[in-house]
Design brief:
InterPro entries: Beta-grasp_dom_sf (IPR012675), G_OBG (IPR031167), GTP-bd (IPR006073), P-loop_NTPase (IPR027417), TGS (IPR004095), TGS-like (IPR012676), YGR210-like_G4 (IPR013646)
Number of domains: 2
Distance between the termini: 23 Å
Protein name: OBG-type G domain-containing protein
Keywords: Nucleotide-binding
Organism: Methanospirillum hungatei JF-1 (strain ATCC 27890 / DSM 864 / NBRC 100397 / JF-1)
Helix content: 25-40%
Order of helices and strands: EHEEEHHHHEHEHHHEEHHEEE
GO cellular component, one term: cytoplasm
Structural class: alpha/beta
Largest sheet: 6 strands, mixed
Bound molecules: guanosine-5'-triphosphate, magnesium ion
Number of strands: 11
Strand order of the largest sheet: 2-3-1-4-5-6
Oligomer: single chain
CATH superfamily of the largest domain: P-loop containing nucleotide triphosphate hydrolases
CATH topology of the largest domain: Rossmann fold
Radius of gyration: 24 Å
Strand content: 15-25%
C-alpha cells in the first residue's frame, strides 16, 4: 500500500491533519513536540465510483464516492539542525524511510516560530519552513551517505564495482533506486567516483527530492490573514484546515451534519437539535469552506497520490459482463497503481499466482481483449484470465 507521511516543524498541525484524515487517535496540543512516537493509520483517497454510470450501485462506495486506503504516518516535529541532534534529533527521520511521498505541513497562519513555540498569528513567515525541512532531510541523507563513503570510494577503485548500484544498495531502505542516483549525479554536475564526501550535500538534496516527492499543506488556513493566505497559495502550497476537517468528521460521525470527506460543504439535517454554540461553530466552518471550496484535507491526499506519485485507479473483476467477483459483488476492489501499469502488472497486484499464470485480459467496458503489455487507463475495469484461480 502507498505510504504518505506528514512532516514539518513542531506545532504546525500534523497530528490534527492525521486525526482528521484517519479518525484514529493522536495527541494534539498547542506546544512543540506533542508527538514523540510516530502515529500510523489509514487514510483514503477519494474518487468517483464507476458504478455511478451503472444501472445499480456497487455496495462498496458511499453515495457514489469510492474511498481507497493509503497509509498515513504522523511524525514528531522537526527543527533547524535536527540532523545534528537538536529537538528530538533525527532518529524519527527514520520513520520517513517508508514514505513514498511527503506532505510537508506548514503553519500558514504564522502563529508559531520555526521551533513551534506559539505566538500571535502573522508574526512569522510560513514560507521559511519549506527550505528548513528540505535541508534537514537532505542533511540526514547526506549523513548516511557520508558514513559509507570511504568504503564506497575504496570499492570504486575496482572496475567491476558500480558506485550507482552500491549506493542504491545502501539506500534501498529509503526506496532510492539506481536511476535516482544516476539522475542526481547528472543534475548535480559531479562525477560520483571522484567526489569527496564533503562535496555531496547538493547531490543529497537532489537525491532526496527524487526519492521523496513533496507537496505542501498550508495548514491553519482558517486562522491566516488574507495576505498570508495569498502568499502561501502563490508558493504552490494547498491551503488546509485540519481543525475544520476534524470537527466536521466528528460532527458527521455523531449524525449532527451530513458530510463526506472531501465535500465542498456540508448540510445540517436537524438544526433544532443543535446548541447555539454548535450552530455558530458550524457556520464559521461553512463560511471558510465556501471561500475555499472545502477544507483542503482530502485534496492534499488526492494530489499527493495522483499528482506526485502518478497513480491511477484500476478495478479488477472476474465477470466482465456483470462487473462482479466470484461472489457476485459488483466492483469489489479498487487498486492504486502507477501510471503506465499493464494488465500483467495488475494481475500480479491481485495475486502473485494470478500474475504468474497470466494469459490475457479483457477490458470490461469494451469487452475487447487487451494485450499483456497494453498501458491501462485510470478507471479501467479489467478481467484477468489466468491459469491460476
Ligand atoms: N485554527 C487551527 N488550529 C489548528 C489547525 N490544525 C492544528 N491546529 C492547532 O495547532 C496546535 C498544534 O496541533 P498539532 O496537531 O498537535 O500539531 P503537530 O504538528 O502535530 O505538533 P507536534 O506533534 O508538537 O510536532 C493545536 O492547538 C491544534 O488545535 C487548523 O487547521 N486550524
Ligand atoms: Mg503531533
Amino acid at each position: 500500500m502507498i505510504t504518505l507521511a506528514l512532516a514539518g516543524k513542531p506545532n504546525c498541525g500534523k497530528s490534527t491533519l492525521y486525526r482528521a484524515a484517519t479518525m484514529a487517535p493522536a495527541e494534539i496540543a498547542n506546544y512543540p513536540f506533542t508527538t514523540i512516537d510516530a502515529n500510523r493509520g489509514v487514510a483514503y483517497v477519494r474518487v468517483p465510483c464507476p458504478c455511478t454510470s451503472l444501472a445499480h450501485r456497487c455496495g462498496v462506495c458511499a453515495d457514489g464516492i469510492r474511498y481507497i486506503a493509503v497509509h498515513l504516518i504522523d511524525v514528531a516535529g522537526l527543527v533547524p539542525e535536527a540532523h545534528t541532534g537538536k529537538g528530538l534529533g533525527n532518529q524519527f527521520l527514520d520513520h520517513l524511510r517508508q514514505a513514498d511521498a511527503i506532505i510537508q505541513v506548514i503553519d500558514a497562519s504564522g502563529s508559531t516560530d520555526i521551533e513551534g513555540n506559539p505566538d500571535n498569528p502573522g508574526s512569522h513567515d510560513p514560507l521559511e519552513e519549506i527550505p528548513m525541512l528540505k535541508t534537514e532531510m537532505a542533511m540526514w541523507l547526506f549523513g548516511i551517505i557520508e558514513k559509507h563513503w570511504p568504503k564506497m570510494q575504496r570499492q570504486a577503485q575496482s572496475r567491476s564495482f558500480s558506485i550507482y548500484a552500491g549506493l542504491a544498495d545502501i539506500l534501498a531502505g529509503l526506496s532510492i533506486q539506481e536511476e535516482h542516483v544516476m539522475e542526481a549525479e547528472r543534475e548535480a554536475g559531479i562525477e560520483l567516483r571522484l567526489t569527496a564526501s564533503g562535496d555531496l550535500i547538493e547531490f543529497s538534496k537532489i537525491l532526496m527530492r527524487k526519492a521523496k516527492p513533496m507537496i505542501i499543506a498550508g495548514n491553519k488556513a482558517d486562522l491566516a490573514s488574507p495576505e498570508l493566505l495569498t502568499k502561501v497559495k502563490d508558493s504552490g502550497a494547498i491551503l488546509t484546515s485540519g481543525a475544520a476537517e476534524l470537527a466536521l468528521r466528528t460532527a458527521a460521525a455523531s449524525h449532527m451534519i451530513i458530510y463526506h470527506p472531501g465535500d465542498a460543504s456540508f448540510s445540517i439535517p436537524d438544526k433544532g437539535k443543535l446548541s447555539d454554540a454548535q450552530k455558530a461553530g458550524l457556520m464559521k466552518m461553512k463560511a471558510y469552506m465556501d471561500a475555499h471550496g472545502g477544507t483542503g484535507v482530502q485534496e492534499i491526499i488526492n494530489r499527493a497520490v495522483f499528482e506526485l506519485l502518478d497513480m491511477i485507479v484500476l478495478y479488477p473483476v472476474e465477470d466482465e459482463t456483470h462487473l462482479t467477483d466470484g461472489q457476485g459483488r459488483v466492483l469489489p476492489d479498487a487498486f492504486l497503481m502507477k501510471k503506465g501499469s499493464t494488465p500483467h502488472d495488475l494481475a500480479y497486484q491481485v495475486h502473485t499466482d494470478i500474475g504468474k499464470g497470466f494469459l490475457y485480459a479483457i477490458d470490461a467496458k469494451t469487452k475487447m481483449r487487451i494485450k499483456e503489455s497494453a498501458v491501462l487507463k485510470d478507471g479501467d475495469i479489467i478481467k484477468i484470465v489466468s491459469t491460476a484461480k
